[in-house]
Design goal:
It is built from 14 helices and 6 strands. It has helices at 2-8, 40-49, 61-93, 95-103, 124-148, 150-157, 166-189, 205-239, 245-250, 258-274, 284-300, 303-314, 318-322, 326-359; strands at residues 12-13, 20-21, 106-112, 116-123, 409-412, 415-418. The strands form 3 sheets. It has a two-stranded antiparallel sheet. The protein has a two-stranded antiparallel ribbon with strand order 3-4. Helix 4 crosses helix 8 (205-239) and helix 7 (166-189) packs across helix 14. The longest helix has 35 residues, at 205-239. The two termini are 14 Å apart.
């Protein structure tokens, strides 16, 4: 073969790898690709004994790490869904405690400006109706989350590559925020700040069940719909951009343009400052970060997603109030430790994504930059392989490998070496 090339000179080149080829070559002796697909007799003989090499994607170590992390995140998502389901059961069970007290009490609706402004008082029966609506909002949000992302969630749990489900996004954001908050509270604790002070400390169980539920829903109505959805409706109307009106109330499906980013920051800022009145100034930073996560979910998935993340955070410790004891504390403690370990990775991931979102630049790529077509599966015999002993059928120079049936070879040291399997003939 080498002598034939020396005498005639290369008249063509492989269109895949650029290797010089003799004029009658059927396969490239370097990459194994078919030079002239019309030669069906030789091509069929070749493919019978061993399949034609196919492109093989070699994963980088970064891509492998990404898949492992995604799989761990899917498992944690399932655990978190179970925890949310338990807390929803507690919420429904708690109605028996809250309703009798609500009939004899009054609650109020507030706006965050960011200072809290009372806009309406709800006594007795109106309190109960409002409370039932809060329960319905959380329950419907949970069902929407599962229904809208059911296919993606099943693929994630089967460790298949797919776009992220709403449940996965909510769970991983929760773990990232939990890790960030824990680190922040440990840090300020070194300076003598008690992060457990404020909020609903010392409240009765029925008050906790109600106040944390109200925060999960009403704060999303105020800070996400009022400060993101409705302002975007005005901007879209001024710019003459068509969009379904329901999107501005229910959220979801927004692109992260300039105005979306502006109102996302505004909403998170008002959300953070409003917590100063019931907590303290130290609460601003972690609540601002949580507000960014909640606003992101509102814009990308919808208000049901932000309600679910808020409910997950606020009702996180509720099982310890309902079932106080060592077992509950131990199980919840183990869950929190694992969630924070996994959340450390997602905290870094979402921090990078947030920087990319607001800067408009790509800072990190999970995908490999190596060309997929440059790598081919090793040429190996198929399951029906038998050593070829028949006549050559139109190979380029009369050579047929007795091991694999290949029809291209190089000549060295008095022997033909098959370009396909590398064995001497």
């Amino acid at each position: 073969m080498a002598g034939g090339m020396e005498g005639q000179g290369p008249r063509s080149y492989c269109s895949y790898c650029g290797t010089p080829l003799p004029p009658d070559a059927v396969f490239c002796h370097r990459c194994g690709k078919t030079v002239n697909p019309s030669t069906q007799d030789v091509a069929s003989q070749y493919s019978y004994y061993a399949p034609t090499p196919v492109p093989m994607k070699r994963k980088s170590s970064l891509q492998t790490a990404h898949e492992v992390i995604r799989g761990i995140g899917a498992v944690m998502t399932l655990v978190i869904l179970v925890l949310v389901g338990i807390n929803i059961g507690i919420m429904i069970w708690g109605a028996g405690l809250v309703v009798p007290e609500a009939l004899e009490s009054t609650t109020s609706l507030f706006l965050a400006l960011p200072w809290l402004v009372r806009i309406l008082s709800l006594p007795g029966l109106s309190f109960v109706i409002y409370y039932v609506l809060l329960i319905a909002a959380v329950l419907l949000s949970y069902l929407f989350m599962l229904y809208l992302g059911r296919k993606e969630l099943l693929n994630e749990l089967a460790f298949k590559e797919t776009k992220h489900s709403p449940a996965y996004a909510i769970a991983t954001l929760f773990m990232a925020v939990l890790t960030m908050n824990t680190g922040y509270y440990l840090l300020i604790g070194l300076f003598g700040v008690d992060p457990s002070s404020g909020g609903s400390e010392g409240s009765a169980l029925w008050e906790l069940l109600y106040s944390l539920l109200r925060a999960s829903v009403w704060e999303e109505v105020v800070c996400r719909i009022l400060y993101i959805g409705l302002p975007l409706a005005v901007v879209y109307a001024i710019k003459g951009k068509a969009a379904p009106y329901g999107r501005f109330i229910l959220g979801g499906g927004f692109q992260f343009g300039t105005w979306e980013k502006v109102f996302l920051l505004l909403s998170a800022s008002i959300f953070a400052l409003a917590h100063v009145f019931s907590w303290d100034i130290y609460k601003v930073l972690p609540t601002f970060v949580a507000g960014l996560a909640l606003g992101y979910l509102f814009l990308k998935y919808g208000v049901y997603a932000s309600i679910m993340l808020h409910f997950l955070v606020d009702y996180l410790s509720m099982p310890t109030y309902v079932w106080p004891g060592t077992v509950t504390d131990l199980l919840l403690g183990i869950f929190l430790i694992v969630a924070m370990i996994v959340g450390l990775v997602y905290m870094v991931y979402y921090f990078i994504r947030a920087m990319e979102l607001f800067s408009g630049r790509t800072l990190w790529r999970w995908e490999s930059k190596r060309p997929v077509a440059a790598y081919y599966q090793p040429m190996s015999s198929g399951p029906g392989y038998k050593p070829y002993s028949g006549p050559a059928v139109g190979p380029s120079f009369g050579f047929v490998c007795k091991h694999c049936g290949g029809t291209e070879a190089s000549y060295a040291d008095g022997k033909f070496r098959c370009s396909r399997c590398g064995k001497d003939n």
